[in-house]
Specification:
CATH superfamily of chain B: Beta-grasp domain
Oligomer: heterotrimer
Chains: A alpha+beta (160), B alpha+beta (82), C alpha+beta (755)
Distance between the termini of chain A: 55 Å
Helix content of chain A: 25-40%
Mean pLDDT of chain A: 96
Number of strands of chain A: 5
Number of helices of chain A: 5
Radius of gyration of chain B: 12 Å
CATH class of chain B: Alpha Beta
Structural class of chain A: alpha+beta
Order of helices and strands of chain A: EEHEEEHHHH
Radius of gyration of chain A: 16 Å
Low-confidence stretches of chain B: none
Largest interface: A-C, 57 and 61 residues
Helix content of chain B: 25-40%
Strand order of the largest sheet of chain B: 2-1-5-3-4
Structural class of chain B: alpha+beta
Number of helices of chain B: 3
CATH topology of chain B: Ubiquitin-like (UB roll)
Number of domains of chain A: 2
Strand content of chain A: 15-25%
Strand content of chain B: 25-35%
């Protein structure tokens, strides 16, 4: 099988690898780069557990081919904390118990981060619609939505 | 005497529809033996897939429980969980 | 560092969970994240037919494909006798389980495993599956439960004779079992009634919908020792079931549970685990298997679809005089629908003198049902709570007042038999009535519904170990996978007993080789039952710490007390000693008798029954039939909330699963019996924009059998939502929707025809 030579930046680090034509970005992250924080819940873009940011765009890594991401800049859950400093969203999810089993958590955090980078003051409805591509079966979304809104509130206070 | 209550389903199969039976027993196992003497096969039936409630408390795997005079004993299907 | 009003330092607080950071950083290892050197992959060939005889399976071509290391069929599993036996705490027929794991002679549903391949890559494994030749003789199939009970229905098993009827039928049928519960005199009860409501309901199979698909890695070495790493609700369950299915000694199989990405009952059985191990036993390479989402839908879970008939009568002053129900539950391909609990829970919230419930466990050409939160209960309770609502309306009574008038209390004979001890049902009704939600105004096309729910909660076998480390920190080991925060609640109880900071208790979930037997995580039992083991282990550690302090001080152990994490002389008579902290006793443990560890195995009894009452507001779009949930309040008696945030989370999550069951979720089959919606796009579980905030209100009527009063939380909240939603829709539209889900086309048709 012909493989494609791919270069990309993942969480600020340059990586290069040979990518099978049909391998998705999710396959690449999980199997090639051992970044298993992005989860596979459906492989059809319906659950959002593999949410990553590709060139400032929130995508389901299962819907992007690895080869397509050549030259791209990828941000995953593994790059969200800064050294031992958790991102405010990560901290708020912990404090407010916005996770139960935790399988959807990386996807929600990446998606929520993308939201707050675009809209620092989202309404509850905006949060709910933005996160509608991420499935959670445990929490009923209540604590997740609250944690995202409380983080936005807190980050506003810091940036003032 | 302890009062044993059976589900109507079990009673139709083993006790001719009688759902309340008074039994002299001080332990759960003695109770089963006495029931089996009265109604052959019932003791075995009640030892499979069956929980017991003794005075309101459900025991999923009854065996060593003691029974006092006046105890109310219900045999129930075993309960699982999700 | 202060204690709260009850003198408790940790119980009832909301510390950050001990496994939290790993889960927000992507570090936590779930089932599919595990790898081993030399690992290859396994794939399953699944039946495309709902019902077919398997005339032959030819695997030679697949076997010959380069890269294929093993191919298996049912012939590679021991043929087990059909016997109902007690396996630990559940009762099973391993013949049936074996046939569900790998079809033998017959494929019984679309998606039924018929063969499996292990190969060096997924591509090769998939090509090998295409090369397996299965000669099917397609048979007529039956999907619907009522049709399956008919005399001329296609027969799934020619050796299935209905249990529970006298005499045993002389012909096989699809009805595996009939159960019946009755108390009092039903006819007399209905004669007393001045108002009677009778109605039929149907519910569709719904999937547990965990976001993490089933995954397992199995490795069998040449000396017969085996190890499975998998996502499961019970590592000991996997060990025993797989041992039985493959004829292994239990001691030769070790099972390590991964983090579990949701289960809700769906991971209380085995699917891939025995298949992966059978493949590994053939090729002696570690074999990894992960289900696709499509496979999860076609071949795992779901809960029963059902037909429910309910009749209830009441006097004009609002006293229920009789309740009768007939429940027909689908088991899927082999017997085992949760019909017993379905029957027992149906009328459990009410104090009734005359009750009769008959239930049927019916096989159909669908995947074998698995447990799903309060297995069996939500279905029967949907019917009963809908009828209770109709009765209240006919009587002109408030929905909560009517329930209060008939509510089960301490001393009530439960409709399923035993007498209730202390229970909190009326408390949930009182809190509901007083909640601002219940008085809030409603707009046009809006309606409010109320419904209650019940679950027993269970105890069972649990082991916990608590090791004191050299520096006075502790390691807490449990044998139950943590599915929703039990590491937090268990650590808090240990810290409470030891009087130390919760950060100094580090919990882990151990594999089957590292801790004593523990029944699986399910039935809302871990914080209750494993919690009891933890508390006893911590008490044992405290006893030992006092003994060590007594030795150090050369006084009698009775003269040493343990307070706030320190040993102290019990009074001035005992002597004048500076308190000894846990860390200082730990530091000298070697000199005073060796390591300090607590280890407790028990079989917890005394689980406390729990009730919930939900209030739901909906708005109905009369143009489209779409129902929007506007506001939702879920009140539940938790006994005692150890970590209230995770109790609220269980309540909120259960409520939203129930909303999905009520409004969206269903399995759709084509006329050939193939599942048409095996994916999250078409099997639509609620998303964030579908639901409002869920106001979870915890009521605490302590369970007297637990040291802190825990009852268990996770099951009850899925019981009320279906009827709470349906009752709200009835109040918004005047239409009684008795068939779930209340999807837009169905409701629109009802509005058009009757509204």
């Amino acid at each position: 099988m012909v493989k494609t030579h791919v270069n990309m930046t993942v969480n600020g680090e340059a990586v290069e690898f040979l990518c099978e034509t049909k391998a998705t970005l999710l396959d690449v992250l999980r199997d090639e780069l051992d970044l298993t924080g992005s989860k596979e819940g459906c492989s059809s873009g319906d659950c959002g557990a593999c949410s990553v940011i590709l060139d400032d765009r929130l995508v389901c890594a299962c819907l992007v081919l690895g080869a397509e991401a050549d030259g791209g800049n990828v941000e995953t859950i593994e790059g969200m904390a800064d050294a031992d400093q958790l991102h405010p969203l990560q901290q708020k999810f912990l404090e407010e118990a916005a996770l139960q089993c935790g399988i959807c958590t990386p996807g929600f955090l990446v998606a929520a981060k993308a939201l707050l980078e675009r809209n620092s003051n989202p309404t509850e409805t905006e949060v709910r619609y933005w996160l509608a591509g991420n499935l959670c079966r445990c929490t009923g979304y209540d604590k997740i939505v609250r944690a995202v809104m409380d983080t936005a509130e807190e980050m506003k206070g810091v940036s003032k | 005497m302890a009062k044993v209550l059976l589900t109507s389903g079990v009673s139709q199969q083993f006790t001719d529809g009688q759902t309340e039976i008074d039994i002299q027993a001080t332990t759960y196992r003695q109770l089963l033996r006495e029931l089996d003497k009265l109604y052959p096969g019932l003791g075995r039936e009640l030892s499979i897939d069956t929980a017991v409630a003794i005075d309101g408390e459900i025991y999923q795997e009854p065996y060593l429980e003691s029974i006092s005079a006046g105890s109310e004993i219900y045999f129930l299907p075993r309960i699982g969980g999700g | 560092m202060t204690t709260n009003g009850n003198g408790l330092r940790w119980v009832g607080k909301r510390p950050v969970r001990p496994d939290g950071v790993d889960k927000v950083t992507g570090r936590a290892q779930f089932g599919a994240d595990f790898t081993l050197p030399g690992m290859i992959v396994g794939k399953v060939l699944r039946s495309p037919h709902a019902h077919a005889n398997i005339r032959s399976i030819k695997t030679e071509k697949a076997q010959a494909l380069p890269g294929v290391k093993a191919v298996i069929t049912a012939a590679d599993f021991p043929e087990l006798p059909s016997e109902i036996e007690q396996a630990g705490e559940v009762v099973l027929n391993f013949r049936d389980m074996s046939r569900n794991v790998m079809a033998r002679q017959k494929a019984l549903y679309d998606g039924h495993a018929v063969a499996a391949v292990a190969a060096t890559s997924i591509e090769i494994a998939e090509r090998a599956l295409d090369l397996i030749e299965v000669d099917y003789e397609v048979l007529p199939h039956v999907i619907d439960v009522v049709e399956a009970m008919e005399a001329d229905a296609p027969l799934l098993h020619d050796d299935l004779y209905t249990m529970g009827v006298e005499p045993t039928p002389d012909k096989p049928s699809n009805v595996a079992k009939r159960v019946e519960f009755s108390i009092g005199d039903l006819n007399a009860g209905f004669e007393m009634a001045e108002v009677v409501v009778e109605r039929e309901f149907t519910t569709k199979p719904v999937h547990q919908g965990y976001i993490e698909p089933h995954a397992a890695v199995a490795s069998a070495s040449e000396d017969g020792l085996c190890h499975i790493w998998c996502t499961t609700q019970g590592q000991f369950m996997v060990r025993y079931y797989v041992s039985r299915l493959l004829g292994l000694e239990v001691s030769k199989l070790r099972v390590t549970p991964s983090e579990i990405g949701g289960g809700f009952g769906g991971k209380t059985v085995v699917y891939l685990e025995p298949v992966a191990l059978a493949l590994s036993m053939k090729c002696h390479r570690p074999v990894k298997m992960v289900m696709s989402r499509e496979e999860v839908f076609r071949a795992s879970g779901p809960t029963s679809g059902a037909h429910v008939w309910v009749k209830m009568g009441a006097t004009k002053d609002g006293r229920i005089t009789a309740g009768e129900a007939v429940l027909k539950y689908q088991a899927g391909a082999v017997p085992g629908a949760p019909i017993g609990p379905g029957c027992m829970c149906a009328f459990a919230p009410y104090d009734l003198d005359n009750v009769k419930v008959v239930g049927f466990d019916v096989v159909t050409n669908r995947p074998k049902v698995a447990a799903y939160r309060a297995p069996g209960a939500p279905i029967s309770e949907f019917g009963v709570e809908s009828v209770v609502d109709e009765l209240a309306k006919k009587l002109g009574m408030d929905a909560i007042a009517f329930r209060e008038k008939n509510a089960a209390r301490e001393g009530t004979h439960a409709a399923y038999g035993p007498t209730f001890g202390e229970i909190g049902y009326t408390e949930t009704l009182r809190v509901a009535k007083e909640h601002p939600h219940y008085q809030a105004p409603l707009g046009p096309n809006q309606g409010r519904g109320v419904a209650s729910g019940f679950w027993f909660n269970i105890g069972g076998a649990s082991t916990a170990a608590l090791n004191v480390n050299e520096d006075g920190t502790t390691t807490l080991i449990s044998g139950c996978p943590d599915i929703g925060g039990s590491r937090a609640s268990l650590s808090m109880m240990a810290a409470e007993v030891l009087g130390i900071d919760v950060e100094q208790v580090r919990p882990t979930i151990a594999d089957t080789g590292s801790i004593g037997y523990s029944f699986l995580t399910g039935g809302s039992r871990v914080t209750f039952a494993t919690g009891m083991a933890v508390i006893e282990a911590a008490n044992d550690v405290v006893r030992q710490l006092r003994e060590r302090a007594a030795k150090i001080w050369e006084i009698d152990v009775e003269a040493v007390v343990w307070e706030n994490g320190e040993a102290k002389p019990s009074g001035s008579n005992a002597g004048d000693f500076e308190p000894l902290s846990l860390s200082s006793i730990a530091a000298t443990a070697g000199k005073t008798g060796g390591p300090i560890t607590g280890h407790v195995s028990l079989n917890a009894q005394g689980a406390g029954p729990a009730f919930g009452t939900h209030i739901c507001d909906v708005e109905v779009d009369r143009e489209t039939g779409r129902v929007t949930v506007l506001r939702y309040t879920a009140i539940q008696d938790a006994g005692k909330a150890i970590h209230p945030s995770y109790v609220e989370g269980q309540i909120q999550g259960g409520a939203v699963q129930g909303i999905g069951w009520a409004l969206n979720e269903e399995y759709i089959y084509d006329e050939d019996g193939r599942l048409e919606n095996p994916g999250f796009l078409d099997y639509r579980i609620p998303v964030a924009s579908d639901v409002p905030m869920i106001d979870a209100v915890i009521v605490e009527v302590p369970n007297p059998k637990h040291p802190y009063g825990v009852r268990g939380v996770g099951e009850v909240p899925i019981c009320p939502p279906m009827s709470a939603v349906a009752n709200a829709v009835a109040n918004a539209t005047g239409l009684r929707m008795a068939d779930l889900p209340i999807s837009p086309p169905k409701l629109l048709a009802a509005i058009t025809n009757g509204g």
